[in-house]
């Protein structure tokens, strides 16, 4: 039991670092850890993942705001539509059995990652990404809604879908997009986490997981935000794609062979 409380903050720190670098929150990796290592239900695993994401997002956003990487207009869209989506996704996760959840979970990040990688390769020759505008089309609202629903269902952050879409389709600056998404994930993830965990009776052991998750996520997010601020935008895009694909393949492999 003691080993668990050493492993949890170390793992949370590692995932939060990657999540803030890639602008995705790292929720998929958290969910896999909670599902297979701690043996929690999918509903509980998703809730804990969202709590971890909200923690890492808070730390990461401080640095991002200070460097002027946040677009407030896009933030409002992500937040409004994301919250609605999280509510719908959380309701769905409540009725889907853990066995089915494990079977379909890996295909979601894998699909997102492949699309992101293809778009990244096609755009390697772009010298300057666009700066986000103050007005966005309805498609951004729809994508934010879908991302929120998947976040509420899987425990992943909204960054994988919205980040990929905005950088691949709209060709917006990855640093600004990822930073804005991370800020929005503070509220959407807290909301989703409360929807999940507020309906569960905690055991004494599992209740103790939360502070260790928060501490590890906070440290990892701080380091990740610092590093992402000095990495080139194109490298961030490629890193995001590879992380999402790896997570999807890992989830499918674990489900099939363990």
From TrEMBL:
Query: InterPro entries recorded for this chain?
Result: TM_pro_TauE-like (IPR002781), TSUP/Inactive_protease-like (IPR051598)
Positions of transmembrane segments? 7-37, 74-94, 100-121, 142-164, 176-195, 207-226, 238-257
Q: Which UniProt keywords apply?
A: Cell membrane, Membrane, Transmembrane, Transmembrane helix
Its membrane topology: Multi-pass membrane protein
- Main localization, broad class: membrane
Q: Name one Pfam family in it.
A: TauE
Q: Which GO terms describe its cellular component?
A: plasma membrane
- Where does the record place it? Cell membrane; Membrane
As for family, the record states: Belongs to the 4-toluene sulfonate uptake permease (TSUP) (TC 2.A.102) family.
What name is this protein filed under? Probable membrane transporter protein
């Amino acid at each position: 039991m003691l080993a668990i409380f050493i492993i949890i903050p170390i793992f949370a720190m590692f995932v939060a670092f990657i999540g803030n670098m890639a602008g995705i929150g790292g929720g998929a990796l958290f969910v896999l850890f909670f599902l297979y290592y701690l043996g929690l239900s999918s509903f509980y695993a998703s809730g804990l993942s969202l709590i971890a994401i909200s923690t890492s997002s808070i730390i990461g956003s401080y640095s991002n705001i200070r460097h002027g990487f946040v677009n407030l207009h896009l933030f409002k869209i992500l937040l409004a539509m994301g919250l609605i989506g999280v509510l719908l996704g959380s309701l769905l996760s409540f009725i889907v059995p853990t066995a089915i959840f494990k079977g379909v979970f890996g295909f979601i990040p894998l699909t997102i990652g492949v699309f992101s990688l293809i778009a990244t390769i096609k755009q390697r020759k772009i010298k300057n990404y666009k700066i986000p505008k103050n007005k966005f089309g309805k498609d951004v609202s729809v994508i934010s809604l879908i991302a929120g629903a998947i976040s509420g269902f899987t425990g992943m952050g909204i960054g994988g879908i919205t980040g990929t879409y905005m950088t691949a389709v709209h060709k917006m600056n990855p640093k600004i997009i990822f930073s804005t998404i991370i800020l929005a994930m503070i509220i959407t993830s807290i909301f989703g986490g409360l929807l999940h965990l507020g309906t569960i009776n905690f055991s004494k052991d599992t209740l103790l997981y939360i502070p260790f998750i928060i501490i590890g996520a906070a440290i990892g997010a701080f380091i990740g935000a610092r590093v992402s601020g000095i990495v080139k935008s194109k490298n961030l895009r490629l890193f995001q794609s590879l992380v999402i694909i790896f997570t999807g393949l890992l989830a499918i492999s674990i489900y099939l062979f363990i």
